[in-house]
Amino acid sequence: MLFNSINFAIFLPIVFALYWLLQNKNLLYQNILLLIASYFFYASWDCRFLFLLIFSTLLDYFTGIKMYEARKPGMKAFWFWLSIGINLGFLGFFKYYNFFADSFAESLSLLGIKANFWTLKVILPVGISFYTFHGLSYVIDIYKGRIKPERNFIDYAVFVSFFPLLVAGPIERATHLLPQIKSGRKFDYTKSVDGLRQILWGLFKKVVIADNCAEYANNIFNHSLNYSGSTLLIGAIFFAFQIYADFSGYSDIALGVARLFGIDLLRNFSFPYFSRDIAEFWRRWHISLTTWFRDYLYIPLGGSRGGTWMKVRNTFIIFIVSGFWHGANWTFIFWGVLNAIYFLPLLLLNRNRNNLEIVAQGRYFPTGNELIRIASTFSLTVLAWIFFRAENVGHALSYIRKIFSLSLFSKPEGVAFIGSNQPCAIVSVVIFFILIEWAGRERQFALAHLGLKWPGVLRYSFYLAIGLFIFYFAGSKQQFIYFQF
Amino acid sequence: MRKLISKFFLFLIAITLLIAALLYFSNRIINDGNYFSLKSNSKYVVFGHSHPAYAFNDSLIENFVNYAQQGECYFYTYFKVKKILENNKRIETVFIDFSNNQIDKRMDDWIWSDRFLDENCPDYMPFLGFEDLKILIRNNWRGLLELQNISLRSNVSFFYGNEMNYFKSKNAIGYLYSDRQKADSLIKTIPVQKSNIKADTGISEINIHYLEKILDLCTANKVKVYLIRTPIHSRSGELLNEDKFQQILSSRFKTIEFLDFKRFPLADAEFGDLEHLNYKGAEKFSLFFNLLMKENVLAQSEKQKFIDKEMVKE
């Protein structure tokens, strides 16, 4: 059930109405309803994997309690490693089995040994990377004594499987979400309206920007041998907008939907393409995953304390693991390594926390210097996205080689830009999108405050115009990219 | 809560009305406009799906226009015939392709399956009436709803485009050039094709009903109408329902003359595949058809016999 589908448009109002009808009854009923709705939502993807989700939930629920109640440190460690082992085991099997089998066989063949490992047609359960990380953070936090285990199974199950965040995040923390699930929620008009605005903007990002850019990006990446460097460069830029609008659009819808139920989720994006360096980019891109790795991997490894060697090692580890989290392909690992290479000079020169404030805060326009830094950071990001999108490393390298050839200065091939809409119309809406994002960059999301002080007629006309854009420019429906992770 | 719901519904109603108005007016402008004129010398038009689209090279046939379109069934052809006849009073004769697959139950998919709905319906939305919409709603309301934006875009792109003929402004209408030559290789796989792909699945009553509507339309406009079957390879799996095809022809269309070119002599190399001609086959067939028209085939009392005799000479 995609967020931008008719099914979801029917599902959401029904759950919303039932949920607030139960407002004055009992919190437990509200949470049971959320749990049933979440399991229904998940089962609509593939009901076979619902059992995996329930098993994972039960596992972490019980090991959490067992860990807390264990009198001996050995028993506590046992329950902890059991949970970690099973969680990572499932993730590893469903996501990485074929990758490791193939890679191992290939490396043996380099040594002249022929190995034939079974490769299985494993279907990746939707959202496994996200809900496994929910569970892992919960178990680690209990083990470290940061939180107490949740005794109410319904509350815990809602924390793991709350439908807006179930299949593509944001990756929540028990410390942030569980207290909200456990406390009574009152209907808040302002919050709900804010949620609806965020859903509207998320839909615009996904349906108008991401799906249309995807048509060109897919065509260019899938036939990159046929195109000149200039076309490939444009294809990479389209992909950069596709992945940002796709994932941040999904997150906006998820956050907006959660707000309709009176729940605030963690922010996942903060206008990353306006970053002035890569360190700032990583503070603004997929924030819930970045902070997860920071808290549960980077800091336990020693973080940026220690000597230079330690910093270099930890930086590479966190970026490579982050790349690998995205999928079982060397392209993601190269993408991670490239970002580590971008990031490392800033860390070693102690400049990784230079740009903490919002760019051009309180001003309409950036300075020339800021603009150059934004453009150069964006260019580096686009280069890295080529690895992320390419079929394999060879494809990415040949794609980049062609961009840096003389054909970069030739006229782009028109045939590459055949899609549901005219390319000039899509470029215009992308420019409109950038302007709105720029105008709203000091807020939670671009539409959060935009137009709030305008006269009512003008404001509603603006929202209607966005709605009309969504209807008119809707490209061919594409799966959300992050569902495959 | 009430405030939120009322404002949200107000917003939904406003946007729905806005979209409905845009669709209605853009459809109306197209439907009422004069965007359907053919070349001034056109007296004969052929309609149908890919079979005639590949078979009739209309540049080789005098006063003849090929208006067939790949993947189009009678449900949609009906609206095309209607607009062409309304706007081109000099048309004397209409040929409607009547191939074996046009009666097949699978034609229902050509009307309302997601793929064909997306490909065909947006171009015909300006002309669909309530009864036609009811058929689509009954069988794929979701698909119909989801293609409304494609329909609006299609209308807008026509207004901004340079092509003044509505149907010509849409995809690949008319003669389709093909240099494929796959008949040989397909014949080798024929047992598979016959058993799996072309199995008889029943009759598409809706498609046949729309053929009847097309014929009634031609009669009402005092235009001569013929059913026509273009050359098809003798090994084609589509011929498996020949008995049923002949039965429908003789029972439901007995008053309409049928011109059958099924056995038009062509080499395998003149077929693109077993159902469609390539450019060589199209050239040979079109020149032959032009000759027939010059010999006034339509004035013959026993047209099929005349055609068969001429085909033997080929």
CATH topology name of one domain in chain B, in short, is Rossmann fold
Mass-distribution shape of chain A: globular
How big is the Rg of chain A?
Answer: 23 Å
What oligomeric arrangement do these chains adopt? heterodimer
Classification by helices and strands of chain B: alpha/beta
- In what range is the share of β-strand residues of chain A? under 5%
**Count of distinct strands of chain B:** 5
Q: Beta fraction of the residues of chain B?
A: 5-15%
Distance between the termini of chain A: 17 Å
Question: Largest inter-chain interface?
Answer: A-B, 19 and 19 residues
**If helices are DSSP runs of H or I spanning 4 or more residues, what is the number of helices of chain B?**
14
Identify low-pLDDT runs of chain A.
none
Organism (chain A): Niastella populi
Pfam families (chain A): MBOAT
GO molecular function (chain A): acyltransferase activity
Subcellular location (chain A): Cell membrane
